[in-house]
Amino acid sequence: MNSFIYTLSLLRTARILRLPVLLAALFSSGYAQSLITHDPGFIGFSASANVGQSFTLESGFNYSITGFNWIGITPSGVVRLFDQEYTGTPNDLASATTGLLATSESYASGQFTFSTPVEVGGGTTLYVYGTGYQASIDPFNGYAGGNIFTASGPTSSYVAGLTFDARFEVFGTASAIPEPSTYAALAGVMCLGLAWWRRRRATVA
């Protein structure tokens, strides 16, 4: 009982009317970062033009993807981001809409930038495809979260390569999803605040 009264006195000192500040602190468990995931790999060899790569985002976070880059080369053209595997040809990529999330609008400072950030949850597998340039390859298949996709020519379909990956970087921000314990802490604080408010109201009355 004494501990409860002591807690109420602390709440009174801190002014429960500042609860929004506490709520913001509880939910500020996210963090910003520029590099979401990547495969730096080793400089091995370059694939032919028309390369794609899938990647899987770490669970427990919400992501806002803003850009992409092929490591080790100076690319040209554009990249397109999908939420499913694209099985068409490079020639048809520009008109593909099924599963398309974003198309890059520019390339500068080492990355393709998407016109609008792509919001996705953790555990999601996404697919990036580009045409007209080569991609540096990690021949040791060092990335476990996806596969490279290549097309032998502009009229050939993309196929997955299971023994190596493209070297790539994905840019954006990630924010942690609050754990159940965070909600429990929030509920506890609100209950204490309500008890303090009722006690103060009864005292004034």
The chain-level structural class is alpha+beta
The main pleated sheet reads as: 10 strands, antiparallel
Helicity level: 10-25%
Count of strand segments: 13
Shape: elongated
- Proportion of β residues? 35-45%
List segments where confidence is low: pLDDT < 50 over at least 5 consecutive residues: 1-33
The arrangement of helices and strands along the chain is: HHEEEEEHEEEEEEEEH
Number of domains: 2
Number of helices: 4
Q: What is the topology, as strand order, of the major beta sheet? A: 1-13-4-7-6-5-8-3-10-11
C-alpha-based Rg, rounded: 25 Å
Mean pLDDT across every amino acid position: 79
Cα distance, first to last residue? 23 Å
Characterization of the model:
This protein has a ten-stranded antiparallel sheet with strand order 1-13-4-7-6-5-8-3-10-11, with no helix packed on it. Strands 2-9-12 form a three-stranded antiparallel sheet, with no helix packed on it. The protein folds into two domains: 2-28 and 179-204, no CATH class; 35-176. The protein is an alpha+beta fold and 205 residues long. The chain starts with a helix and ends with a helix. The protein has helices at residues 2-14, 19-26, 90-93, 180-204; strands spanning 35-39, 45-46, 51-56, 61-70, 79-82, 100-108, 111-121, 125-130, 136-138, 148-150, 159-161, 165-166, 168-176. The longest helix is centred in the last third of the chain and has 25 residues, at 180-204.
